[in-house]
Fold this sequence. Notes:
Layout: H1 12-22, E1 28-30, H2 38-45, E2 58-60, H3 65-77, E3 82-85, E4 102-105, E5 112-116, E6 121-125, H4 130-139, H5 156-162, H6 169-172, H7 175-178, E7 179-185, E8 191-194, H8 208-211, E9 220-227, E10 234-242, H9 245-259, E11 263-270, H10 271-281, E12 293-301, H11 304-320, E13 326-329, H12 333-344, H13 346-350, E14 355-362, H14 370-381, E15 393-401, E16 406-413, H15 418-424, H16 427-434, H17 459-472
Parallel strand pairs: 2-4, 3-4
Antiparallel strand pairs: 1-2, 5-6, 6-9, 7-8, 7-9, 10-12, 10-13, 11-12, 11-15, 14-16, 15-16
Helix pairs in contact: 9-11
This protein binds flavin-adenine dinucleotide (FAD), D-malate and zinc ion.
Amino acid sequence: LKRDSRFAQITDDHVAYFKDLLGKESAVIDGVTTEVSSDDMEPYNGDWMRKYRGHCKLVLKPGSTEEVSKILKYCNDNMLAVVPQGGNTGLVGGSVPVFDEIVINTSRMNQIRSFDDVSGILVADAGVVLEVADQFLAEKGYIFPLDLGAKGSCHIGGNVATNAGGLRLLRYGSLHGSVLGIEAVLPDGTIVDDLSKLRKNNTGYDLKQLFIGGEGTIGMITAVSVQCPQRSSAVNVAFLAVDSYEKMQQTFREARQQLGEILSAFELMDLRSQQLVHKVRSSKSPLDGEHPFYCLIETSGSNADHDTEKLGNFLEDVMSKEIVTDGVLAQDETQLRSLWSQREGIPECLGHWGGVYKYDVSIPLEDMYRLVDETREKIDAAGLRGDTDEFPVVDVVGYGHMGDSNLHLNVAVRRYDKRVEQVLEPFVYEWIAKVNGSISAEHGLGIAKKNYIGYSRSETMVGLMKQIKNLYDPNGIMNPYKYL
Ligand code: FAD
Ligand code: MLT
Ligand code: ZN
């Protein structure tokens, strides 16, 4: 990949313009006119997986939509490439520069604009941290319709830009449904004010959908309006052990049948993912012994007695039918959090050894786990897995949002290694294309999946995407070198 020579290099004059515009010292981090150590730039240049590193020398932190508009117009007029950035927790290298693109970070745009207690509609700046939004809503009896392990750092603008799925999509659906409106800025500075608070609005093309999951390639989201559901007063969690993937599918089926409308999460974890979590944390499994698979089932409803009885009956039933081998129900809030952390902690623990190859895929349920087994066989056949530094692969694990047919196939490594990559790619992508799956269920394409979009989208569709990109961003300054 080569730097696109159409883009200008940042000069002192550019920096002076931005300093004048944004004023406050903290709003511009500049390695062009000021000596800043690479440590100061590292949080903006390096991604969460320590896999991608940019060389940006200028980070801008606008405080308002108007400032974003002026920044983008100036960049567009001067052919300066930019990367929109929220909490920088993205997992496909989309949120960091590739060369010297300017980072436009949303952390100073962090105000909740309004909340309607009756409709549950929240309007907030793009830079509000997901957990902050959710805590605000909790006080009002509502919940943000998205939850994920990075909630303490990711921004809701970033969530919308990636169309993040997370742990409760099964219950609350995709952001394509719950985001009612968007305010965004196009590269030429135009402010698209579509902060609708309407649940229904069939007036022509629904253009906001292009920004949802657009990964910052056509404009910068500055605010969102979100339909938030009622927070359930009764939440229960069960952690179950299952002997085979076949039985895991039966467990899911029974859970849907028996728990019905109160089911709010069904998360899969294989034994190896749990072994790695326990190794890193020096902790123990909530269940005795070792079992090939585990799942976490959450229910959310309005009647604690009713829900507890329902979940208890379900557990008794699936154990008596020998579908489930063992299980535990959280008895209090502390235990509930601890069970959730067996699942939510997986991504962080997998990164412990140095790196991780991540495949976030949608596959028909019946085929889902076979991909993990076959990938492990390939890695073993290549002699890449072992206990010492000579063998880069620590393990091949599978976990994910089984309730949404979304598997996370992860290969934890001691260091990123071309040999490992060559075994995995295009093997994994070919496998997915064969079963008509998707190479990106929820993380997006970014730079990691840039060359593989063709495994999930036809030439016609990629062509249409390119037309849209060119229409919105004719100079190509928005998040260049990424998937389009
Ligand atoms: P960033 O990482 O900063 O940016 C992500 C992308 O969006 C980039 O392409 C960036 O250019 C663009 N972008 C950011 N802000 C804007 C904006 N305002 N306007 C336009 N474009 C913008 N994802 C899931 O789907 N489900 C999960 O369960 C899940 N769990 C995770 C758990 C962990 C521990 C981690 C580290 C990540 C997880 N993710 C998950 C990945 C997920 O994509 C991000 O966590 C989150 O949605 C990204 O938000 P962010 O603010 O960090 O965005
Ligand atoms: C998750 O479900 O934990 C996230 O999508 C992060 C990951 O895939 O590791
Ligand atoms: Zn996920």
